[in-house]
Design brief:
The protein is mostly helical. The chain has six helices and no strands. Helix 4 packs across helix 5.
Length: about 130
């Protein structure tokens, strides 16, 4: 990784510094995380815009996608451990990844369903379960 110098307006730095102090983090990490979040959001937006070019069948496949049962079970086990206070830091990190994966799946499914509706389809629970 290369180190780069960046000049930041004082008001931006002060806001980042305040946030860093409130969250017990280095200000540099707060700014890096902020930039990463922005670029990930832009990448996600680009990906979702690409859905406009998918066929109806592809959109139906995405709308019907489910998280595999073993992953759902693993996530539930970790959530139970988290609720009971017996989760390890490594397990918590894994839980965060699984929750993020689930949230991402909901976003892409929602986008697919919205596009199918826009294309004139009636997206119902029954339609989504057709191939289960």
């Amino acid at each position: 990784m290369s180190d780069y110098m960046l000049t930041v307006p004082e008001d931006v730095y002060v806001s980042a510094q305040r946030f860093a102090e409130e969250n017990s983090q280095p200000v540099e990490q707060v700014m890096i995380d902020s930039i990463r979040t922005m670029t990930e959001a832009a990448d996600e937006e680009t990906e979702l815009q690409a859905f406009n070019h998918l066929s109806d069948n592809s959109l139906w496949s995405i709308a019907r996608e489910r998280m595999p049962d073993d992953v759902q079970n693993q996530m539930q086990d970790l959530m139970d451990k988290n609720s009971s206070g017996t989760i390890t830091p490594e397990e918590f990190a894994e839980l965060e990844k699984l929750v993020e994966r689930g949230q991402r799946l909901m976003v892409v499914k929602s986008e697919a369903m919205a596009l199918l509706t826009k294309r004139g389809y009636k997206v119902t629970r029954e339609e989504l379960m057709v191939h289960e």
